[in-house]
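Support request, please re-run this one:
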Amino acid sequence: MKTFFDIFALFLTIYTSVAFGAEAGVSERVTDAKTSAVLKPDTTKTSKILSDNAEESTSVAALVNGVAITEEKVQAIIEKALRGLRGQIPPQLLEQHLDKMRKDAMERLIAEQLLDEQIKKKNITVSDKEVNEQISQIAMQQKLTVNDLKALLEAYGKNLDELKEQIRQGTSYEKLIDIETGGKINVTQQEAQNYYEANTEQFKTPERISASHILVSTRPTEPNSDPAKLKADAKAKAESLLKQIQNGADFAELARTHSDCPSAKDGGKLGTFSKGEMVPEFEKVALTLDVGKVSGITETSYGYHIIKVTDRKKATLVSFEELKDGIIQSLKGKKQEEFIAEYIETLKAKATIVYSEKSSPAQPNQTPKPSKKPAMKKK
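Re-run finished. Output below.
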């Protein structure tokens, strides 16, 4: 059984920009003055809507087969996107991306409305039992109880009822896809095998080593410390410890009594790691040491290290049998994405979509010109 995250993400990835439409998941409000200014809803009055039931409104961004997509819904999606970008992009650059974020939000809301119409038309329903089963599955996958999941959602400013509604919507989309495709979106084992053989680099586990170290820190513990003296004393201590090891002293015991790293209590054990997981100076030495060998003095921003490699596991290719089910699901997901994109474009082509002046999409390579016509445009 698929989870909500499989189903709903499948749809949202098509109509929500990864770069400018992802929600961080943390319920924070943007407080930067400039950013807050661009979040204000559009208050410019629009002219009469070109439809059989024309009406004037400042909150309608578009009509989809007569159903209003409100400016409030568009702004809500943009605000979520901005919260996700907080701290990642300078506030002065956010305004440059508002047009794209707005377009993504409009595409998503239009697509949702068109899909919801088809779900209603085909009498597709999702029972409470189906929703609760998926809630239990999500909790189980995260090794949580349902109550734990509820508490986790609340910690991020969300609630279980919201998740249930998202699951209900996502599952209804899956049922619609199954109906429209006759359940014929499948991936054969041979297709999966072909993909595996053409992409073996993706399925290699990197070389991993296990190592221990002794750290003599060069970071000051007092505000008036002399950095040069601190560094000289640390290096002298590290050289003394290295000499003791070379003379037969127990590495783990020296780490326990002299290392400034939290790993000291474990005899200096750092666990297992691969390239890219440690600071460059450290891993450059560690990855070239033979098992059982001890390095010389290695300097990093933390101080002086003495490194001992205790185990090494060579890079390996994970077998097809281990990956088969995951590859099949991934390829099936790609086929579903392609189908959904085409299906929604088909629905849009048949729909009557009336945009506000602000929401009207520009033609490729064409800058919209000021219009003297009413402020809603029909597509």
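Strands lie at 60-64, 67-70, 204-205, 208-217, 269-274, 294-300, 303-313, 316-317, 353-356, 376-378. The first helix runs from residue 4 to 15.
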